[in-house]
Design brief:
- The structure holds 3 protein chains of 3 kinds.
- Chain A is an all-alpha fold.
- Chain A has one domain.
- Helix content of chain A is 74%, strand content 0%.
- By secondary structure, chain B is mostly helical.
- The longest helix of chain B has 32 residues.
- Chain B has one domain.
- In chain B, helix 4 runs antiparallel to helix 9, helix 9 packs across helix 10 and helix 13 runs antiparallel to helix 14.
- By secondary structure, chain C is α/β, with parallel strands linked by helices.
- In chain C, 36% of the residues lie in helices and 27% in strands.
- In chain C, helix 3 packs across helix 4.
- The longest helix of chain C has 16 residues.
- Chain C is globular, with a radius of gyration of 24 Å.
- Classes of the chains: A mainly alpha, B mainly alpha, C alpha/beta.
- Chains in contact: A-B, B-C.
- At the B-C interface, helix 2, helix 7 and helix 14 of B face helix 2, strand 6, helix 3 and helix 4 of C.
- The site of adenosine-5'-diphosphate (ADP) has 12 residues of chain C, from strand 2 and helix 1.
- Chain C: InterPro entries: AAA+_ATPase (IPR003593), ABC_transporter-like_ATP-bd (IPR003439), ABC_transporter_ATP-binding (IPR050763), P-loop_NTPase (IPR027417).
- Chain C: It is a peripheral membrane protein.
- Chain C: It is found in: Cell membrane.
Chain lengths: 250, 275, 318
């Protein structure tokens, strides 16, 4: 088991480009913080810190998913992997969850950057924040799995990955609560784990949470559902690929 | 059929026509790549929608701030910045020249590498300017600060100049991404964040110190401030347009030298594997 | 480095070192040779011998660390631009073209990059497409092309500027036998036109049939250079005689003939090597006399020369 995990890790670590998003995205907090300073609204710093964390986490997840698929496709690994579809699927799941999980670091980063710039960005209830953030990371990994399945299915993975960032920042309510969005997309935000989780994360950071248990339970359910959907989609696509219904090169 | 004696070495003396032709075909090859990247559906509902969401997202920061002026400032700034951010696409796409193995032939052909690569990536420039114009027309409307259509001419002129300036910076950075392909994401993302931080997209340009100095040599700064002037009804401030054009020229010179000299030298020293 | 007279390419004491933290590598080590105008020189050597490095230096893509080379009298370091206008480069493999353009569009683009004006470029491209048998599918995207067709587009590009020196690095690597033979014909035609060719290849058959001279290079050093026949004679490689229907009791008689070395005489077949014409005559005579007439005589080939002169590094490592 350890050799298996270390192989997966080596696969990931051999692509230093995989961490580009994670290295870059937290710098967006500078953009937000300087804007707050220019507008003289330091009170909003905790919110934009979380915004940056959300952006980093989501962008990193999408980037990882599409990069892993693209790389495997280029190296012909997908084709090899189909010889052992279950094992390959697990390899994907482990690599994607493992790599996406690293985005927790971004949470610490944006808080520290905020503190260094003289903002009070340390969350009120740290434990709850970290717990919610961990659930969000898992959900993001589930979404990333879904994207990787799409990526095996369609060829234009790059443009797909590009299109999947900002619309979801809006939908996830990373700056304004998602009910700021027009009425027709409200149903979407209700079943989107990120919208739920992000409200909870913001409340936890601000230190005024009510109904912790029920909100956590709903979030947990949505996250598990997202993971399940992602893993199943990948399984279905890999099965289709094995049956020759999906072109593996192009 | 091949007259060796007459044909050999009898090359046209005027290279201008050949350069134009190369540029034309370069644009065509790039356009094909672009077309291969998108269908019209994926362009409209994937790419354009994403960019509009991006502008909307940053504008919503203005809503959070609760100030009408901040909302307008952010919406206009981020919409116009798309012209530049689109143009930065050339940093990553140029790496494809190495992957497809065409770089070696480009270098052997003794052609102008700058012209060839600038033509190949020109679609990014067009993409940036077009999406910025669309965003500028739509997003401010969505956050309640409509932009008047009466200014279309000067606005397009400014967007094109900003895009051009950013495109030249992108080409200069492309020299680096050709040498270190793994760095391409860092390069274009770094340039993007630099613009958002310093060029007056999110907040007014610093008026002294290092940030101000950086702002003056960055694309977008001068053009965007002129564009804000146009929108506030002050008419086109030619000085701003001229300054933006100078920035474009400056980065163009850097890109020209780095692609035609440092890239060739790097290849010949063996520090850039081509072919 | 001037005054190379009739030589199209002159390589003098050429060395190239690649520095690396672990182990600096001498990819080329003091290589000297000439290629005359109109000559086809084959460059033979195992993977990693330094063939591609040599090609890159001659085409100005890489600088030598010492020594130098001239192409039509132009120094590859100092007169790089003049050299670039003189050489046409063809690299093996499928990369190097814009896959979403048609062959015609690719070639027009490269013609323009080679400095041909629009009209000349258009005419030249049509001419080459015709010449290389690509006209029928010239307006399809090259990503739909077969390996052999792609390689013809590559060749067309190398020929666009009517280069005086054509440099090809393993052009037929991975081609099927028909495509490779067709490719050889195209190169022969180029030679007939008077083009000088430097051809790096692993294909001994191709080298033997196309090249006026071959150079054996190994570990960055030039091991031998000369016309295939001369090299084979000099190397004193022996012709092989194979006779079917042989009977073992005849072996002593065959061994008695001077200059015949029996390699094997098992079952019904004799395999022997002969050192010269007299020995060959005597052996054939003896065989025919006892009623054996299913005999073949194989001259030594470049493959044997290659095997004899170039050590099997991979094998040694084990
Ligand atoms: N850019 C480079 N950096 C380091 N070593 C190189 C480089 N290019 C070639 N080499 C080394 O030089 C030697 C010769 O390589 P090459 O010329 O490609 O051989 P060939 O074409 O005959 O197979 C090899 O050992 C190779 O590893
Ligand atoms: Mg080679």
């Amino acid at each position: 088991m350890t050799t298996y995990l270390s192989t997966q890790w080596r696969l990931v670590a051999s692509q230093p480009g995989l961490f580009a998003t994670l290295a870059i995205m937290p710098l967006y907090s500078l953009v937000f913080y300087t804007t707050l300073r220019a507008q003289d609204r330091p009170d909003l710093a905790p919110i934009v810190a979380l915004t940056t964390f959300g952006m980093s986490m989501w962008a990193h997840g999408m980037f990882v998913a599409s990069n892993i698929v693209e790389n495997d496709r280029r190296e012909g690994v997908i084709q090899q992997g189909l010889l052992t579809p279950a094992a390959y699927q697990w390899s994907m799941v482990i690599r994607i969850i493992g790599t996406t999980a690293l985005s927790l670091v971004a949470l610490a980063e944006v808080v520290v950057i905020g503190v260094l710039l003289g903002f009070s960005t340390v969350p009120e209830s740290v434990t709850l924040c970290v717990l919610v953030a961990m659930l969000l990371v898992l959900g993001t990994a589930g979404a990333a799995l879904l994207v990787s399945a799409l990526g095996v299915r369609v060829q234009a993975i790059r443009s797909l990955q590009n299109a999947l960032t900002y619309p979801f920042y809006l939908l996830g309510g990373l700056i304004l609560p998602a009910d700021w969005l027009p009425e027709p997309v409200h149903w979407l935000t209700r079943i989107f784990f990120l919208s739920h989780g992000f409200r909870l994360l913001q409340d936890a950071a601000a230190g005024h949470v009510t109904d912790v248990t029920s909100r956590l339970a709903v979030l947990l359910l949505l996250v598990l559902a997202q993971l399940l959907v992602g893993a199943c989609a990948l399984a279905v696509v890999l099965r289709a690929a094995r049956a020759g219904r999906v072109p593996l090169y192009g | 059929m091949w007259d060796n004696h007459g044909g050999r070495g009898s090359r046209v003396s005027w290279r201008g026509s050949a350069t134009l032709c190369a540029a034309g075909y370069g644009v065509l090859t790039g356009w094909r790549d672009y077309r291969a990247m998108f269908t019209w559906q994926s362009w409209l509902f994937g790419w354009l929608a994403r960019l509009l969401c991006q502008v909307l997202f940053f504008s919503s920061l203005g809503v959070l701030l609760g100030s009408e002026s901040a909302r307008a400032y952010l919406a206009v700034g981020h919409a116009a910045a798309l012209a530049a951010l689109g143009a930065f696409g050339v940093v990553s796409s140029t790496v494809g020249e190495r992957r497809s193995g065409t770089l070696a032939f480009l270098l052997v052909s003794d052609s102008n590498v700058y012209v060839a690569l600038a033509a190949r990536g020109a679609y990014w420039l067009v993409d940036g300017v077009v999406t910025a114009a669309i965003a500028l027309a739509l997003v401010p409307l969505a956050v309640g600060v409509p932009v008047s259509g009466a200014y279309a001419g000067p606005i397009l002129l400014l967007l094109a100049t900003m895009g051009l300036a950013a495109y030249q910076l992108g080409l200069a950075l492309a020299t680096l991404s050709l040498r270190w392909p793994e760095a391409r994401t860092y390069l274009s993302a770094g340039a993007t964040i630099a613009l958002l931080l310093f060029a007056g997209v999110n907040r007014p340009v610093a008026d002294s110190g290092l940030p101000a100095a950086v702002a003056h040599v960055l694309p977008v700064t001068h053009g965007l401030s002129a564009l804000r002037g146009v929108l506030s009804g002050d008419g086109l401030h030619w000085g701003g347009l001229l300054a933006e054009a100078c920035v474009a020229l400056g980065w163009g010179a850097v890109a020209y030298l780095s692609l035609n000299r440092s890239l060739r030298h790097a290849a010949r020293r063996g520090s850039l594997a081509v072919g | 480095m001037t005054g190379t007279g009739g030589s199209m390419l002159a390589v003098r004491g050429l060395s190239r070192r690649f520095e690396s933290r672990k182990a600096p590598r001498l990819a080329l080590d003091d290589v000297t040779f000439d290629v005359a105008r109109g000559e086809v020189l084959g460059l033979l050597g195992p993977n990693g011998a330094g063939k591609t490095t040599l090609v890159r230096i001659i085409t100005t893509l890489l600088l030598p660390t010492s020594g130098g080379a001239t192409v039509a009298g132009h120094d590859v370091v100092r007169d790089a631009r003049a050299v670039r206008r003189t050489v046409g480069l063809l690299l093996g493999g499928e990369r190097g073209l814009y896959s979403r353009l048609t062959a015609r569009q690719n070639l027009r683009y490269w013609a323009a990059l080679h400095g041909l004006d629009t009209r000349t470029g258009r005419r030249r491209v049509t001419e080459l497409l015709e010449e290389l048998g690509l006209s029928d599918r010239a307006d399809e995207q090259v990503r739909t092309y077969s390996r052999g067709m792609l390689q013809r587009v590559h060749l067309a590009r190398a020929l666009l500027s009517r280069a005086e020196l054509l440099i090809m690095d393993e052009p037929t690597n991975g081609m099927d036998p028909h495509a490779a033979a067709a490719f050889d014909d195209l190169v022969r035609r180029q030679r007939a036109e008077g083009t000088t060719v430097l051809l790096a290849t692993h294909d001994m058959r191709q080298a033997q049939s196309l090249c006026d001279r071959v150079a054996l290079i190994d570990g960055g050093r030039l091991r031998a250079i000369g016309a295939p026949d001369t090299l084979l004679t000099d190397a004193q490689l022996l012709r092989t005689v194979t006779a079917r229907g042989f009977r073992a009791e005849l072996t002593p008689a065959v061994r008695a003939i001077g200059g015949v070395l029996v390699q094997s005489d098992d079952d019904s077949e004799l395999v022997a090597r002969v050192t010269d014409g007299a020995a060959l005559g005597a052996l054939l005579n003896a065989l025919v006399t006892v009623g054996i007439n299913e005999i073949s005589v194989t001259p030594p080939s470049l493959t044997e020369l290659y095997r004899a002169r170039i050590s099997d590094r991979d094998f040694q490592l084990r």
